[in-house]
Amino acid sequence: MKRGAETRERILEIARAAVLAKGFSATSIDEIIAEAGITKSGFFYHFRDKNELARALVRRFREQVETALDDTFGRAAELTDDPLQSFLVGLKLFAELVAEDHRDGSGCIIASICYQERLFDREVMTSIRDFSSSWSQRFDRYLAGIEQRYVLAPGVDLRDLSDMLACVIDGAIIMARVRQDHTCIERQILAYRAQLRIAFPAPKPRAQQDTIAVRPSLAA
After folding, report:
1. Are residues 73 and 37 in the same domain?
2. 101 shares a domain with 138
3. CB atoms inside a 10 Å sphere around CB 209
4. Staple partner for 22: which of 26, 129, 131, 190, CB 3.0–4.6 Å?
């Protein structure tokens, strides 16, 4: 990594830690500069203002999350051709990963920015909505693949199941911070996992399954 890229990454990491600790409004450019050991002009070389910094934080977080999802659910897909079992294994791996990442009690950068929405321009909030949509679309496709092979319980909506996962994870991260107990993150994701077994109670008779069962891509 070139020095300029290293400096940019260091600024982003310092900003992330500060925002998670005390919020975006309480995080000043001056303190980031002091922590990074750079000049003010050095900061503005990489980021024009705090909105651009926020966009970069969202983009960095999204890349990290999508890489983690590709890795964990990709490994799960290698273990079984059954779409439900593959998803359940992936959730177990992802639960462990998220819990470990938040062992220090840190929150969610997306939530931290959303709580102070009025501080940011439209482009920042649009980037967050795009991220949320890509998350839902990823799991919409995967749940649709499960529904090809399994009976869906009455009254269950696939989009709600997809959105519920994001709600469970963000809620569990907040709960973990309040209770100072990172293990509740894994427990809550595993509780969602148990609900999936209820949502898809049994395989469909083979005659009712789609003629061509194609496992949906997990790519965003």
Report:
1. no
2. yes
3. 13
4. 26
Domain count, the chain: 2
Cα–Cα distance, 158 to 163 (Å, whole number): 9
Q: Tokens 């319980």, residue?
A: 153
Structural element, H or E, at residue 116: none
What is the pLDDT, as a whole number, of residue 208? 78
**Cβ contact 121:51 at 8 Å:** yes
- Residue 120 and residue 36 share a domain: no
Q: What angle do CA 129, 135, 140 make, to 5 degrees?
A: 120
CA distances in angstroms from 137 to 5, 55, 134, 141, 144, listed in the order given: 31, 21, 5, 6, 10
What pLDDT does residue 220 have? 42
Q: Is residue 213 part of a domain?
A: no
pTM across the whole model:
0.84
In whole angstroms, what is the distance from residue 190 CA to residue 78 CA?
Answer: 21
Domain extent at residue 115? 63-208
Same domain for 69 and 31, yes or no, is no
How many C-beta neighbours within 10 Å does residue 188 have? 20
Q: At 187, which CATH number?
A: 1.10.357.10
